[in-house]
Amino acid sequence: MMTPKSKYRLFIGTYAVVLLSVSLMFSDCSAKKEREMPVLPDAVYALSSDTLPFRFEVSGQAVFSAKRNRADEYFCNIHYPGLNACIYCTWHGMHPGDFDTMARESRALVYSHVQVATGIDEQPYADEARRVYGILYDIKGPVATPLQLALTDSTSYFFNASLYFNATPNVDSIAPYLAYIRKDVERMMQTFTPCR
Asked: Would you say 163 and 144 are in contact if contact means Cβ atoms under 8 Å apart?
């Protein structure tokens, strides 16, 4: 049988162990978060290749490649080797009547993530001087492609860009890289210029 004094000692000992465990758990989590914050360099931009029917500024942290797939269709990739990410782009020349179909397909691609997305924000864009119009989509949650961009003049071309990380989507892990690349996608949108 335990005496009141031994019950008190057992209570104090258990209480101390629980307090110590909880404090170690929280101190380890905060230290881990501080260690994981990456330091990303300031982006320096240059124009993409002038052999394409469009141009835009690309970050010097990325590797740009492009190829003609067929008449009036080009693919380009903007690869971020240090961030394990890539922006896949397609440019399609349009014929009369193509706009509605291309706009619908582009939107369907974005909203195909609705099952796992926690939200989809649309940022409309218009540059009357260059006749460039579009939408930048931020797709929230554990999705394969958290950023998508659609640009067009609604008569002669349709341009799509989708950002993919080459890893299982983990919102917290990719957040700093997503914010970094989002600036580059905004720059791409703001400097996109058709060459025809």
From this structure: no
**What's the pTM value of the predicted model, to 2 decimals?**
0.79
Q: pLDDT tens, 53-83?
A: 999 999 999 999 999 998 899 999 999 998 9
Q: Return the CATH number of the domain spanning residue range 45-194.
A: 3.40.1000
Residues 6+ apart with CB under 8 A from 43: 59, 60, 61, 180, 183, 184, 187
Alpha helix segments (H runs only) across the chain = 4-36, 98-111, 171-191
Q: Which pair of structure tokens corresponds to residue 30?
A: 């905060």
- Encode pLDDT of 77-118 as tens digits: 999 998 999 999 999 999 888 999 999 999 998 999 888 899
Domain ranges (residues) in the chain = 1-37, 45-194
Q: In this structure, how many other beta carbons lie within 10 angstroms of the beta carbon of residue 97?
A: 7
Query: CB-based burial of residue 35 (10 Å sphere; 0-12 exposed, 13-18 middle, 19+ buried)?
Result: exposed
Report the DSSP beta bridge partners of residue 163: 87, 147
Hunting for tokens 């380890």 — which residue is that? 28
Q: What contacts 186, CB < 8 A, 6 or more positions away?
A: 136
